[in-house]
Input
Amino acid sequence: MSVTKGKNIMNADARVFDPDHPELSYTLPSECYYSPEMYKQDQKLIFECSWNFACHISQVERPGQYVKINISQEEVVVTRDKSGQLKGYYNVCLHRAHTIVQDDAGQANFFTCPYHAWTYNLDGTVRSARNCENVKGFCKDDFKLNEVAVEEFAGFVWVNLDTSAKPLRELAPTFERKLLEHCPDIRSLKFAHRETWDMNSNWKTAIENFSECYHCAPAHPGFVDLVAMPTYTVTTHDIWNVHVSEVQPNTNAPISVSTPQDRALEYVAFFFWPNVTMWIMPGAGNIGLLYMRPTGPETTREYFDFYFMSEVPTEEEKASIEYLRDVLQPEDIELCEKVQKGLRSRSYKTGRLFVDNGKTGISEHAVHHFQKLVHEAYRKSEEVMKVIS
Amino acid sequence: MRLSDALKSAGFYIPASCGGSLACSTCHVMLDAGSFSRTAPASVDEEDVLDMLPQVSATSRLSCQIHCDESMVDAEVRIPDAITNLLSK
Output
């Protein structure tokens, strides 16, 4: 028997993540999924310098419409000013640091800090600061709200705390075209419904669970009756991946679906770096964004925002929401929480990724792809690389 | 004297929490048509506040923005049933 020596064999012996050889790679070390230090690094190296999903363009269409989101330890308010320009601000009053906007979304002509009643115009300038005329040397112009980078891309609004970040069109040049191919109505959709869950798992565990359908047959009996698994494909691209499958409605399927004649009868799901998944179910124009916001090393808040052609879902759309809310999501959350428990075990450090030769619908190549993006982010820190190598 | 101060002095409940900085709307009043037409028109910033109120009328004003002089002697001022405080939103 001959033994081939080289990098691949070394990696197999070492059981480490191999960014260049998905077919031989192990997972990232389990410590990345529970260590408080790694949680801080995820915030610093990933969320504080990536484009974070904020909302659909329809949610900040008019001047003064706003949404508030959390990124890392920060709160950010996204709005449109009176000239129609999209703006994003740190939600911190520049007087004594009270948060300014309290609601998650709304409509305002200006923003008021509830602490001392400073008000800010939609363009971030100070509108009024009570008693300022009696304060020596105070100049309103010195206190414009601090801005973050904001971008409209693929029908959605994205925020980056790093104002020097490359635009999404450069980072994901083919994404919008692919999304429009499967969801041509994306810009016309309306926000219809939100579900939230607090789960006891690291955010990466949840993304990785989404990224493969190897677990679908054993863990999601309803889902595998809905999709035609032999047609299920997963393809990876720069900072996103896409799952596409034909749908074959049958008596065992958890929801019935009808599709306009000009649409394929298909299920499509995208992952978009770092924490967004997009689900397009068969039927009229629709998309659901399931995104994971880390709240701790082993806790994550999941949001599922549903967008349809109307703000009021049809009966079929309601059935789809109920299936995702009551069946599929609870199944996935239980899986993630049990994986999280296992990741904590002293017996587990890394696991073998199952990337098959044909990169089939049950292959884990998109898990490797996601971990490679995480690995690339970690490479910015020598300290982190010591942990994972 | 501002109308909000005059109303307070007369014993009416006018919080005017933001001290005239056009932030809270707790001094919102409705004037009679004659008094409304005699007062200087609302600024854009005041209009922005009034736009955000649920109980607004054609003669709504923020009383902290109205100078109270002899022309207001016969004014009829109605205080809304419910006070909206934009600071607590």
Notes: The mean pLDDT of chain A is 92. DSSP finds ten helices and 17 strands in chain A. The first strand of chain A starts at residue 52 and ends at 56. The radius of gyration of chain A is 23 Å.
